[in-house]
Amino acid sequence: MSSRNSHLQDLIDLFASIESKKEAEMLLMDILTPGEREEIAERWQLIQALASGLTQREVAKKCKVSISKVTRGAKELKYGAGGFRHFLRKLSQP
């Protein structure tokens, strides 16, 4: 296994070890810069908007982001590994 794959596996293991919202918050605050946190939060917001049925142009306007950002998110939602769809379903359950 390459060093890069090993580091990715370490990161996956780290995320998998999160047991509470508090732990998730602690990790996000330490592992990401404020700008990275904002960018990821923005990506999740536009994914949620796309999943709700809004068009890409409507999402760009609502989220105040470029259409290219929305298009990248839409591609991941449609062709990605399925993580976005999984967590959209998981978080919508009571």
Helicity range of the residues? Answer: over 70%
Major beta sheet, specifics?
Answer: none
Determine the strand fraction and express it as a percent band: under 5%
Given helix and strand content, the structural type is mainly alpha
> Distance N terminus to C terminus?
40 Å
Give the tally of structural domains.
Answer: 2
C-alpha geometry: globular
Number of strands: 0
Radius of gyration: 15 Å
Average pLDDT across residues?
Answer: 94
Order of helices and strands: HHHHHH
Report on this structure.
With 94 residues, the protein is mainly alpha-helical. It has two domains: 1-31, no CATH class; 33-94. 79% of the residues lie in helices and 0% in strands. The radius of gyration is 15 Å and the shape is globular. The mean pLDDT is 94.
Summarize the SSE layout with pairings.
Blueprint: H1 3-16, H2 21-31, H3 34-51, H4 56-63, H5 67-79, H6 83-92
Give a brief rundown of this model.
This protein has 94 residues and is mainly alpha-helical.
Quickly list its features.
single chain; 94 residues; mainly alpha; 6 helices
